[in-house]
Design brief:
Chain lengths: ~70, ~300
């Protein structure tokens, strides 16, 4: 897997973690994305309870570019 | 006749014990209490937690940092660089410039960061997430670690991650870290509570998990507490979380002597606690007791 695919996977994962309510949907959307074919085995092993933890973490600690710029300008 | 020289093993110097310092009010009394009693050998500072927040550090905190910097006892531990984010972003360049300035301002013994990525999708900062081990990810990690070394002029290292999506993340993290760290002769910050989280959540004995890491690279141990949360599915035991807001679990204290034995290069043992959580329910006394137990284990 090259760096471009890794970046796309990370972007997609972070977006799904932030936007979806069901961790099973997060995993199934990643699994069905052809760009991540090389990660199929890895994705199939995902524990959805741990994905749910990740969803909680990004919602608690995640800051967008806009938010950090607002903070920096205070 | 040449007399036989009785050689005795050179005793290993005990690791230095210290605190991860946070600039919150609850840390002021706690940190000063230990510093005043000369119980703190070394301070770890996550210099980037104040970047973008007005960069104000309380004077009591500055005083401790300057003192330990002058004594050559200050460790740097970044939180937001996101070394395994694919691509190399403007924010990461900015972060490295800030690191260079920070290392010009204060003398750090070493700089470490966290394994994983946080800058992705809508987020520039978040919690570190696991990365599947691929050739591209290893190359990326090496490149970022080399950049850290160039900007800081210090030895650099990575800390193992608590969060794992799957067994592959758990079983493979030690090998992944070795692949990345070996390129720059980097060190490993082995967080025993992170290891404990994976041990509980994936039902693997802690000793076995410990053996999957490149223990010869461990220069620093992290000790902390955390919390439990129910599984969303309702199936299986509660999930151990690395929330840094509770007492150090007994199992972490139990594994500490073994970790010290199996990691001959450990130089620092650091107690971590989340800022703003010390005063709750007698937290200060509890934390001081945890700190004293670490000192006993290290001296023992």
């Amino acid at each position: 897997m090259d760096e471009q695919v890794l970046r796309e996977y990370q972007d997609r994962l972070a977006t799904l973690l932030a936007g979806e309510d069901d961790p099973e949907v997060v995993v199934s959307k990643l699994m069905s994305d052809k760009r991540f074919e090389s990660l199929r085995e890895y994705l199939a092993g995902m524990d959805t309870d741990m994905v749910a933890v990740a969803m909680e973490l990004v919602r608690k600690w995640g800051r967008s570019k806009d938010e950090t710029e607002i903070q920096a300008n205070r | 006749m040449v007399g036989k020289i009785e050689s005795s093993p050179v005793p290993r110097a005990s690791p230095l014990v210290g605190l991860s310092l946070l600039p919150t009010e609850d840390f002021r009394d706690f940190a000063w209490n230990l510093v005043d009693r000369a119980m703190v050998d070394v301070i770890e500072w996550s210099f980037d937690i104040i970047w973008g927040d007005g960069e104000m550090t309380p004077s009591w905190c500055e005083s401790i940092l300057d003192d330990f910097s002058a004594r050559g006892r200050l460790l740097g531990h970044g939180v937001t660089f996101s070394p395994f984010s694919g691509g190399f972003t403007e924010r990461q360049r900015w972060w490295l410039d800030k690191l260079r300035a920070e290392c010009d301002r204060r003398r750090y013994v070493q700089i470490s960061e966290h394994f994983g990525f946080m800058e992705a999708g809508p987020f520039v900062e978040s919690a570190p997430m696991p990365v599947p081990m691929t050739e591209g990810a290893v190359i990326l990690g090496r490149r970022c670690l080399e950049a850290l070394a160039r900007s800081s002029g210090c030895p650099v290292g990575l800390e193992n991650l608590a969060l794992a999506f799957c067994l592959e993340d758990v079983r493979g993290q030690g090998k992944f870290l070795e692949e990345v760290l070996s390129r720059v002769d980097g060190f490993l910050v082995l967080d025993l509570h992170n290891l404990y989280c994976q041990s509980v959540n994936f039902d693997i004995p802690m000793s076995e998990l410990l053996g999957s890491y490149p223990l010869g690279r461990v220069r620093e141990l992290h000790i902390s507490g955390g919390s439990l949360s129910a599984r969303r599915s309702g199936a299986g035991p509660a999930i151990r979380r690395d929330t840094h807001d509770g007492p150090v679990p007994e199992r972490v204290f139990e594994i500490l002597p073994e970790a010290l034995d199996r990691c001959p290069g450990v130089e620092y043992v650091i107690l971590e606690r989340l800022g703003g959580t010390i005063d709750e329910l007698g937290g200060a006394e509890e934390l001081i007791r945890d700190y004293e137990r670490i000192l006993e284990a290290v001296d023992g």
